[in-house]
Amino acid sequence: MIRNKTDKIAMPYVNVVVKNEKDKSFVSGTITHTEGRFSIENIKPGNYLIEVSFMGFKSTTQPLFIGSLSAFLDIPVMELEEEATALAGITITAKGSDISSKLDKKTYSLADNISQSGGSVLQSMQNLPGVTVQDGKVQLRGNEKITILIDGKQTALTGFGSQTGLDHIPASAIDKIEIINNPSSKHDANGNAGIINIIMKKNKQNGFNGKVGLTTGLGALWERKENLPAIRPQYTFTPKINPSLSLNYRKEKVNIFLQADNLYTETLNKNEFVTRTYDDGTVINSQLKRNRNTNFLTTKAGVDWSINEENTLTFSGMYGSEKIIDRGDQPFFNNDISQRLRLWQFLEDELKTTAMATATYQHRFKEAGHLLNMGFNYTFHREDEKYFYDNYLPSSTGTDAFKLLSDEQVFDFNIDYIKPLKYGRVETGIKLRNRSIPTNMNFIPGANSVLDIDAGGWATYKELIPALYGNYTFENEKWEAELGLRVEYVKIQYNVNPGHSTYKSDGYNYTQPFPNLRLAYKLNDNNKLSVFYNRRVDRPNEVDIRIFPKYDDAEIIKVGNPALRPQFTNSMELGYKRNWNNGYLYTALYHRFTDGTITRISSIVPGSTLVYAIFQNAGKSYNTGLEAIWNQKLSKVYSFNINGNIYRNRINAFTVENLYPKPNIFSAAEQSAISGNLKLNNALNFSKGWTTQLTAVYLASDIVPQGKISSRFSMDAGVKKLVQNGKGEIFFNVNDLLNTMATKRQIQGLGFRYTSEDFYETQVIRLGYSYKF
Asked: Whole-structure pTM over 0.70, yes or no?
């Protein structure tokens, strides 16, 4: 703001010019409007002079530093002193430029990920630097405790504090993905490994425009390992089809948008061969084969209404429908596979429905970047699941069934306030969440049933979380600092029907601070060194404490634990980034230590061969590692990105008591392993719109609860061609080109051990076309 020094009255139409400090060259300029205020956009980080002049007044100049940490700066009021001297006119021009990336966040466009185009979000993330995928879950730096956001919000599509459904959300609906390893206090404290923010497509161009696309594919092109005797065939040549539509209409103050995607897939979802050896010498060989049909429809629509220059309202809704049909076989044989002991054949019929409504309001104060945001979000999620089991024994046949119905409702309300400063900004806000999940499980036993009907019934999960946060950011020529604190109160109550065979109602509450700190030193324009610290929490998800046994494996049964408590993690990181004209190098040394580590513990009870896998708090664990990303453009044609991560996982010795189905004590010695991964992305950009990508991924062996997982390797390739003057695009890709990705495990439990190898479907070919209009 510019004022008259004499009477303090705001001055309109004052010339404001930004010049380079070194050579005084013109960079940008503007004039103040009727209230004496001005704003200038798109200035590169650096040192400048801001010069203010007006006819009849003395010109004034002051230094201006622009950094990369804050999107807005608030320049203190400048005052002009009267002078009877006429000044020459000034010509105003502008030049825009991009702002450099920050060390605490990495952003990747899915349009650049050609080798994974046309699949699910989970498949698309497999090639991203710093990301690995294991057992259908994303890991950052070897840790799966990640909070997944969609457009900055937690939703039931991906789970509140967990990660579900990522393998069924179409990548065609996604614009880009943000990876935040060191979140600020503005974000929920859940997820010690960090946050992945999935940003959906949304256009804001004037007029009517959109994009339409269609992708088809085939998977499981041949059998990698043949079935055990006398079961139904594995899926082969599984079809995939993904139509997508994006529409947008913007005129004056209104922007209307629609995004619709449908992903239908048939998949060999699991094909796991297991050998279990018990302490008494008994050996059981089994295979769990699951043929899956999935149809996932997701639709997002809404309207942005710019009421005036200061106020904007957005109303949006999202609907998702996920239909899953699993047809599976699980035979059990003796040691030499000469005698079939038992056969389970099952049908799972599951429908997940999600509906979300969001309203957001933004007030822009007169100062640029000075904002007040308010939001309300309502989510409804229904899980309707039915299982039917045919149990074939040597002398009899029986049919078991169960039905699970769960209705989740979540209310979120938040207020966020942002005030730019001359050297940074302050942010503060509040958030309130109220969440409830009533669940009903009905077991329907048949002849010779193995179902534990006393473990059924109802249970209700209730969660109340009010939170308050504050964050201060400072930046000058050499230093950057960010200091934040989030305080959360959490109350969890899990009510269990009184007739349950093992578990009773339980719950917990806490009030905890979650600080974060970032301190960075800019060695020069191309080198930056940063130190991070934050404290985060992983609260047990509702499915982690769910009391009902899950029979998706007939003899390795998963059960929740209502006595499970949160795990708290402290994280430290030292990061360094060097930029040059055609590339950059990013490295990070990190260490995390966790108290109350949440993990599954597998054990058996005397007189039974059934394995029960139950979540427990296993004490302290540690994760220390080094990550590096080298991005280089060697020529106009060729560029590459190589990402390496090496880390050491350690879990202290611990002893726990599994209560289900009968109390038993389990003790484990200390586990540790050095693991890591390596990824290489190669991109070739040829003339006439041709682009190709080849990606190689290597995952080293690692520890898992009570055992280890073997190393894995895969290669993906893709090619893209722009057509129709750049409005159209055709792509073709192959995932797991050499068909080498298989998951091998060795587990040591109480009274048994087992080895497994899963030859699930990983090789898929896809062909797709899209057109912008």
From this structure: yes
